[in-house]
């Protein structure tokens, strides 16, 4: 995209001051998109380690058959809270952090459209995270019986039976939902109203496009989840029977409502990453993005399809044949727009002049591993084979390829790509490469065995297993610990980069294109006070 | 898939780990028409997606090797297809994918689904499976036989105090017996939360949903013992409710059914005679250990707050029956027979016999640190139903 700026980019000379209080008050009261972005990202990284520690405890228990470290009740709490923390408190806030930092910089806006909403959107997160994890602590003092123990899906009637932890999780989900909707409204309003003059919707950076679709999906589906968990709450405490057959309800209704949110949620997590990928690939291939329009239409197509395929998450509940066939074929249809994205990613690389700095390594690793997620997803859509895959470790492996390789490695791509811009320092390239290779190898060693465990018949969410599953579980556990520990390198590299390091140029990367690279590194506290003009 | 399997075997042969011979790389051997269908479809799909994976990423990796800055490759400038021929080639991969999705994968899948859901045609018999926390109840409605099947792996093995047996966690006290070569219509339901009945070798996985009937079918082609597990998280002991099916020739099945019938008749007959307290206590201990100890614990101390203690419990130590001999609401007998809604405490009158109920109630009132001294007769339970 060609850009002509009418003034010195962003850095208006008369505003030196960063007018904000110092210390904790700065962060509590800030309405600055960069501050809020930083808080989202810091929160996400912290919760990533919390969720990771939980699952390492689970993997340690699964090291061998028998109960070694924990009781089944506690095991069940760990798996559910791990998922909720990783999805709602790590991956989603990380993507929102990116949006806060990058969307104003990329579209030439001085800030987000609704800065106070933005502040509130973030500060709802810590209380929600506390609500999610507090029941563990309360149980230590003999109050309640610990956290939600139903898995992250809250399936009724198991969740109707559960203890205090279920109520805590319900309220946490409510608060997280409000936060997500506020963030989404802000992003939509910002993109629609605050683009630089001349930046039409079809010149909008793909990252912003991906987020735009995510924001609409959040607004469409979060209320459904909020409704479902509220119905659960009234079933639990006020004698309603939404999910109880004895009172005319239906437990499967809960699954329909949950997955009406839950399936789009997968794309909510992935669309920001898909939006980011073309930028990274184009930068390090030194070549323009291939198929911009096709990718925009691909995003929209996936967004629309994602809300009409939900029932493929519970084929085994027993559905009429026409429903099975409809949900199977509509799910398979998603492979087409997804293939468009893969096609464009590879075509962007094709005949470029590639170099493989850490962000590019993560981006290519993402494409390959997310490809495995997509392909195994295609076979999971098949009702006949799904009867064997469903509820087994095959599914566990599949969605970790989608959400770790597709989601978290995508976030890591973004962090390495933009960190020099945000901090003004280059990160440690050698450390970044170590982080990449350790992550990729240990990730595959963790989850490939789980595909085979699933095929051999190991159900998910069991604290103890039959002897034939031992060896694969051992490999998976060892690799999971390597994977977890390698992430310390990531945290250390970020820390080091924030503290100092070689000075990053404004453009940072030789092949970088877009408005954000015209600002200094780091960009001033208030950027794009005079909007650039895009031709 | 064959190549994959071979590759895997090669890797296995090269690996230094000794136990690799035990590794399972694919579905276990199928023994029903559905399982064979499923395995066939799965193998075909794995081949397709492996081919797709290899082709797509071979192109990408070729590009990554050849189109490098360090090799002096000059970047091209194209941003999309130009001209008819390029557009044509850009659409070819999608046409292929469309064909794979809806024809190559879609058509066999539709046939398999229709076959899978055809539970009623030419069914020879019905097996009703009821999931409950954390055991399965099997019922043969035509024969009137009904029994509960629970995990038989000793607690010591789970707690690592004894060596684990060959079928650790996959063995039960009362296996379900089915005739070979007969189409069995399986009806599923649950008394508490959602469970999933899964035997991998049957290719069958179906949820058992409280308040609803779901169905599936099996036609076992080969005699043998087939093992599976509950596949839907159903609470604390989700990992400890296995399925064990013995598939036998029909005459053997009929003999087994007769034996079960007479056993059941003998047990029911017991309800009409008066039982001594010692008899009830002995029987009650046995029932308690099987049915109640998972939650209320072997010594009756429970796991509060979810599973209350019976030792010193107000309910257990309350009055037995009203002066008129009726059930008092929320009393001990009421709880055991009718359960407590919204909790894991189920209505045991649906699953236990009169003798079992009478003996376990008597046991709980006179053991586990309680000493009420009273007792209830199986005949009384019978009249209270």
From TrEMBL, chain A:
Membrane-spanning intervals of the chain: 36-58, 78-101, 122-148, 168-194, 206-233, 296-317, 323-348, 360-381, 401-419, 431-452, 472-495
Enzyme kind, highest EC tier: translocase
GO biological process: electron transport coupled proton transport; oxidative phosphorylation; respiratory electron transport chain
Keywords, alphabetical: Cell membrane, Copper, Electron transport, Heme, Iron, Membrane, Metal-binding, Respiratory chain, Translocase, Transmembrane, Transmembrane helix, Transport
Main localization category: membrane
Reaction(s) catalysed by this chain's protein: 4 Fe(II)-[cytochrome c] + O2 + 8 H(+)(in) = 4 Fe(III)-[cytochrome c] + 2 H2O + 4 H(+)(out)
Pfam families in the record: COX1
Pathway: Energy metabolism; oxidative phosphorylation
Signal peptide residue numbers: none
Compartment(s) where it occurs, according to its Swiss-Prot or TrEMBL record: Cell membrane; Membrane
Listed GO CC annotations: plasma membrane; respiratory chain complex IV
InterPro entries: Cyt_c_oxase-like_su1_dom (IPR023616), Cyt_c_oxase-like_su1_sf (IPR036927), Cyt_C_Oxase_1 (IPR000883), Cyt_c_Oxase_su1_BS (IPR023615), Cyt_c_oxase_su1_dom (IPR033944), Cyt_c_oxidase_su1_bac (IPR014241)
Domain named Cytochrome oxidase subunit I profile: residues: 27-535
Membrane topology per record: Multi-pass membrane protein
Family statement drawn from the similarity comment of this UniProt entry: Belongs to the heme-copper respiratory oxidase family.
Biological role: Cytochrome c oxidase is the component of the respiratory chain that catalyzes the reduction of oxygen to water. Subunits 1-3 form the functional core of the enzyme complex. CO I is the catalytic subunit of the enzyme. Electrons originating in cytochrome c are transferred via the copper A center of subunit 2 and heme A of subunit 1 to the bimetallic center formed by heme A3 and copper B.
The name this protein goes by in its record: Cytochrome c oxidase subunit 1
Organism: Sulfurisoma sediminicola
Lineage: Bacteria, Pseudomonadati, Pseudomonadota, Betaproteobacteria, Nitrosomonadales
TrEMBL record, chain B:
Reaction catalysed by this enzyme: 4 Fe(II)-[cytochrome c] + O2 + 8 H(+)(in) = 4 Fe(III)-[cytochrome c] + 2 H2O + 4 H(+)(out)
Function statement: Subunits I and II form the functional core of the enzyme complex. Electrons originating in cytochrome c are transferred via heme a and Cu(A) to the binuclear center formed by heme a3 and Cu(B).
TM region positions: 45-65, 86-107
Leader sequence segment: 1-21
GO molecular function: copper ion binding; cytochrome-c oxidase activity; heme binding; oxidoreductase activity
Domain Cytochrome oxidase subunit II copper A binding: 122-259
GO cellular component: plasma membrane
Cofactor: Cu cation
UniProt protein name: Cytochrome c oxidase subunit 2
EC number(s) recorded for this UniProt protein: 7.1.1.9
UniProt organism field: Sulfurisoma sediminicola
First-level EC class: translocase
Keyword set includes Lipoprotein: no
Residue intervals of the Cytochrome oxidase subunit II transmembrane region profile domain: 19-115
Similarity remark: Belongs to the cytochrome c oxidase subunit 2 family.
Any one of the GO BP annotations: ATP synthesis coupled electron transport
């Amino acid at each position: 995209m060609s850009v002509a700026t009418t003034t010195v980019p962003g850095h208006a000379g008369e505003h030196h001051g960063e007018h904000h209080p110092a210390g904790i008050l700065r962060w509590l009261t800030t309405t600055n998109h960069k501050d809020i972005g930083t808080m989202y990202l810091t929160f996400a990284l912290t919760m990533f380690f919390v969720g990771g520690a939980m699952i390492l405890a689970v993997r340690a228990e699964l090291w061998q058959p028998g109960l070694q470290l924990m009781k089944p009740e506690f095991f069940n709490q760990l798996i559910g809270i791990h998922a909720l923390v990783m999805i709602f408190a790590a991956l989603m806030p990380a993507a929102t952090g990116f949006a806060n930092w990058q969307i104003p910089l990329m579209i030439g806006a001085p800030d987000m459209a609704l800065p106070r909403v933005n502040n509130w959107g973030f500060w709802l997160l810590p209380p929600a995270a506390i609500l999610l994890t507090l029941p563990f602590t309360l149980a230590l003092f003999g109050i309640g019986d610990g956290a939600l123990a139903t898995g992250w899906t809250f399936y009724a009637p198991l969740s109707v039976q559960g203890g205090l932890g279920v109520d805590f999780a319900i309220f946490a989900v409510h608060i997280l939902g409000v936060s997500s909707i506020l963030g989404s409204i802000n992003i939509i309003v910002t993109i629609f109203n605050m683009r630089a003059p001349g930046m039409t919707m079809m010149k909008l950076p793909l990252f912003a496009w991906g987020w735009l679709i995510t924001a609409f999906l959040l607004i469409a589906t979060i209320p459904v989840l909020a409704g479902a968990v509220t119905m659960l709450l009234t079933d639990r405490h006020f004698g309603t029977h939404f999910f109880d057959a004895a009172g005319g309800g239906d437990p499967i209704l809960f699954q329909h409502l949950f997955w009406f949110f839950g399936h789009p949620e997968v794309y909510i997590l992935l669309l920001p990453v898909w939006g980011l990928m073309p930028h990274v690939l184009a930068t390090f291939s030194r070549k323009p993005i291939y198929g911009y329009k096709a990718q925009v239409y691909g995003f929209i197509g996936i967004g629309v399809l994602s809300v009409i395929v939900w029932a493929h998450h519970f084929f085994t509940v027993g559905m009429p044949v026409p429903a099975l066939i409809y949900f199977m074929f509509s799910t398979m249809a998603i492979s087409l727009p997804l293939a468009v994205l893969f096609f464009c990613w590879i075509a962007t690389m094709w005949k470029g002049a590639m170099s493989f700095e850490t962000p590019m390594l993560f981006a290519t690793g993402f494409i390959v591993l997310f490809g495995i997620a997509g392909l195994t997803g295609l076979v999971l859509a098949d009702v006949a084979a799904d009867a064997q895959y469903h509820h087994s470790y095959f599914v566990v492996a599949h969605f970790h390829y989608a959400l770790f390789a597709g989601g978290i490695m995508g976030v890591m791509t973004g962090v390495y790509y933009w960190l020099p811009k945000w901090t003004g320092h280059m990160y440690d390239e050698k450390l970044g490469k170590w982080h990449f290779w350790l992550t990729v190898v240990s990730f595959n060693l963790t989850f490939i065995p789980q595909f085979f465990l699933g095929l051999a018949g190991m159900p998910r969410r069991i604290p103890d297993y039959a002897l034939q599953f031992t060896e694969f579980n051992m490999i998976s556990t060892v690799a999971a610990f390597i994977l977890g520990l390698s992430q310390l390198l990531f945290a250390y590299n970020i820390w080091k980069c924030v503290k100092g390091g070689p000075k990053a140029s404004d453009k940072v990367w030789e092949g970088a294109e877009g408005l954000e690279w015209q600002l200094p590194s780091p960009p001033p506290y208030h950027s794009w006070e005079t909007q650039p003009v895009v031709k | 898939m064959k190549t994959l399997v071979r590759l895997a075997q090669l890797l296995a042969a090269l690996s230094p780990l000794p136990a690799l011979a035990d590794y399972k790389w694919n579905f276990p051997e199928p023994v029903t028409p559905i399982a064979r269908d499923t395995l066939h479809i799965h193998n075909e799909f794995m081949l397709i997606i492996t081919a797709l994976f290899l082709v797509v990423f071979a192109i990408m990796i070729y590009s990554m090797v050849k189109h490098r800055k360090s090799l002096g490759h000059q970047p091209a400038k194209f941003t999309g297809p130009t001209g008819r021929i390029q557009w044509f080639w850009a659409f070819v991969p999608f046409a292929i994918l469309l064909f794979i999705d809806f024809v190559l994968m879609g058509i066999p899948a539709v046939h398999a689904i229709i076959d899978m859901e055809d539970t009623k045609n030419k069914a020879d018999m019905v097996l009703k499976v009821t999931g409950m926390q954390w055991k399965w109840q099997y019922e043969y409605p035509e024969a009137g036989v009904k029994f509960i099947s629970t995990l038989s792996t000793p607690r010591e093995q789970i707690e690592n105090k004894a060596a684990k047996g060959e079928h650790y966690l996959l063995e039960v006290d009362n296996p379900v017996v089915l005739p070979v070569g007969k189409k069995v219509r399986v009806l599923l339901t649950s008394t508490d939360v959602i469970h999933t009945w899964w035997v991998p070798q049957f290719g069958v996985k179906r949820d058992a949903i409280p308040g609803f009937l779901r169905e599936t079918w099996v036609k076992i082609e080969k005699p043998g013992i087939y093992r599976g597990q509950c596949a839907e998280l159903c609470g604390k002991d989700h990992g400890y409710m296995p399925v064990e099916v013995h598939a036998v020739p029909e005459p053997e099945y009929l003999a087994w059914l007769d034996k079960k019938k007479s056993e059941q008749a003998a047990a029911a007959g017991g309800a009409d005679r008066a039982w001594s307290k010692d008899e009830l206590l002995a029987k009650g201990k046995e029932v308690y250990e099987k049915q109640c100890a998972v939650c209320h614990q072997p010594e009756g101390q429970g796991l509060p707050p979810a599973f209350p203690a019976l030792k010193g419990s107000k309910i257990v130590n309350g009055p037995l029956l009203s002066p008129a001999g009726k059930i008092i609401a929320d009393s001990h007998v009421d709880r055991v027979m009718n359960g407590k809604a919204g909790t894991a405490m189920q209505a045991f009158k649906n699953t236990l016999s009169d003798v079992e109920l009478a003996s376990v109630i008597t046991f709980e009132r006179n053991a586990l640190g309680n000493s009420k001294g009273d007792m209830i007769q199986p005949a009384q339970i019978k009249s209270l139903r």
